[in-house]
Amino acid sequence: MDYQEEQSQELEVLESIYPDELEVIKRKYPDVHFRISLKLELPIEDLSILKKQHSIEVDFHLPANYPEEAPIIALHPVETPLAGYEESTSKEEQEETYDDHGNKIVSHLHDGANEIHFDSYIPELQVQIEEHIKDDMLLGMQMCFALLTSIKDHCESWFQQQFEKLEREHERELQEREKEEQSKFLGTAVTPKSFLEWRAKFRKEFEIDQRDFNRRSLMHHGRLTGRQIFEEGLAGEEEEEDPSVEVDQLGNKLKKSL
To answer: What separation in angstroms does the CA of 140 have from each of 8, 65, 147?
Structure first.
C-alpha cells in the first residue's frame, strides 16, 4: 500500500467536503496534520432559545503507515456566542431570583439548555471513537470521514439526552413547587384529636389552668365583693359561688320588698 498516496487522496476528498471547516496544518508526508471544525446541529425544536453555537474541533495526526494504523485524534469543544447574545458575568445575572414569599424562582427550561457543555463529555467520546475504529474494523481503509460522521452523531445524541434530562428535572421541580404553593392555601386538616392536643398545648403554654385556679382561689378564699368579681372578670364561672355573696344578694332582695 502506498501510504503517502492514500493520505494525499483522502485529504483532497476532505477538503472538497469541508471547504470552509478544514484547516491544513501540515500537508507534507509523513507527518500530515489537519483540523476540522464540526458545527453541531442540536436536536431541539426551538433553536432560537440557544445563545451559543456548539462546535467540535477534531485534530488529526496521520501516522506514517495510516490507514493501517489509526489516526491520532484530539477533540476540543468550542462555544461561540450567537448574534444578539453577549456573554455576561455581571453579578445581577449570576444571582438567583426569589418571589415575594422568599421562594427561589424556577428558571425557564431554555435557560437550562444553555448550561449544557461538551467539556465533560469529551473523555467518554474519545473512548467511543476508539471503540468505533476497533468494532467496525476501519483499519486498512480511509476512515477520517467515517470518524467525523460518528463524532458529530455522538455529540448531537448526547446533547439531546442531556436536554431531555433537564426537561424531566425541570418538570419535577415545577410540580414540587406547585404542591408547596397549594399546601399554603389548604392548610392542615383539623380532627377532634388534633384539636384536643392543640388545646392542651395552648392552655399549658399560656398557663391558663393555673390562672383559672388562682382566680377561683380568690373567689372562694379572698371573699371578693361583687364589684371586684366583675372587674376581675370572674363572674360567670361555672364553679360554685361564694356563700357570702349569696347572702348579700338575698338581703338586698328583702330590703326592696319591704
So the answer is: 15, 10, 14
Domains of the chain by range and CATH?
Answer: 3-87+96-186 (3.10.110.10), 192-250 (no CATH)
pTM: 0.64
145: exposed, middle or buried (Cβ count in 10 Å: 0-12, 13-18, 19+):
middle
Mean pLDDT by 10 residues, the chain (258 residues): 96 98 97 97 83 96 97 97 64 52 53 87 96 91 96 96 90 85 72 86 80 68 59 53 50 51
Q: Cα dist. 32→65, 114, 146 in Å?
A: 11, 36, 18
Phi/psi at 212 (5° precision): -65, -40
Question: Residue 58's closest CA among 30, 22, 83, 28?
Answer: 22
Are 140 and 158 in contact, with CB atoms under 8 Å apart?
Answer: no
